[in-house]
Design brief:
- The chain has 101 residues and is α/β, with parallel strands linked by helices.
- The protein has one domain: Rossmann fold (3-Layer(aba) Sandwich).
- It is 41% helix and 18% strand.
- Helix 2 packs parallel to helix 3.
- It contains 4 helices and 3 strands, in the order βαβαβαα.
- It starts with a strand and ends with a helix.
- Strands 2-1-3 form a 3-stranded parallel sheet, with helices on both faces.
Length: 101
């Protein structure tokens, strides 16, 4: 079984370890600034977390556009919910795999 990928966009680098707390089977990647690879990374993620209080407008727009496609498990704007989003993503991906999707 492959890991579920959660992308955290924004936030504070000093909180990196906190953002990366996740249950087994979940990999969290964090990006703190807008970058050319942001859209591709967002596309590859099963869940997205947007720390809206500390992110550029262009980066936030890219993440929100990806989330509006309906493929991402969830977008939230509170960093303390990263682990919760990771659990939701894990559950959703597991259900899809059982269904054969």
């Amino acid at each position: 079984m492959s890991a579920v990928r959660v992308l955290v966009v924004g936030g504070l680098t000093r909180l990196d370890a906190y953002y990366r707390e996740a249950p087994e089977g979940v990999v969290i990647e964090a990006i703190y600034v807008d970058c050319p690879s942001l859209e591709a990374r967002a596309e590859a993620a099963e869940a997205l977390v947007l720390v809206a209080s500390n992110v550029s407008h262009p980066a936030a727009a890219k993440v929100r556009n990806r989330a509006s496609s309906g493929d991402a498990a969830r977008v939230c704007d509170r960093p303390e919910r990263v682990a919760r989003v990771a659990r939701v993503a894990r559950t959703r991906v597991d259900r899809e795999r059982v269904r054969g999707g």
